[in-house]
Amino acid sequence: MRLPDLCVSALMLRLSHNPGGNYAMGETKKLKRCPCGEVPKELHIITEHEHPKYAIACGMCCGEWFIEFRNNYESLNSGRAMELAVVAWNESTRDGVME
Asked: What's the pLDDT tens digit per position in 48-64?
């Protein structure tokens, strides 16, 4: 299932991480490249409710690659959820992508 199909079928809460700015209650960290070759300008969290155990992080570049990460029931409004999403995004393996 492609990300746009997932977005249409799920109730979503989104938070944006802008590498040039700050996100709530956390430091900005540089995002690694997506497998499409671009560095996303934003990272969004997609989930069904505000305190999920797991959530999906997707970079807003190609819409083809997203990762599931453990959110540990953190509130999406706390800033900690985005910190976990950024760490998961950056630590995911990327075959054939230059850093």
From this structure: 888 999 999 998 888 88
Q: For the chain, what are the domain ranges?
A: 1-48+57-73
Strand, coil or helix: 90: helix
Model confidence at 32: pLDDT above 80: yes
Helix (H) or strand (E) holding 17: strand 16-17
Residues 6+ away with beta carbon under 8 Å from 89: 31, 32, 43, 57, 59, 67, 69
The Cα 5–Cα 77 span in angstroms is: 25
For residues 79 and 45, give the distance between their C-alpha atoms in angstroms, rounded to a whole number.
Answer: 11
Greatest distance between any 2 Cα atoms in the chain: 35
Q: Is the pLDDT of residue 69 over 90?
A: yes
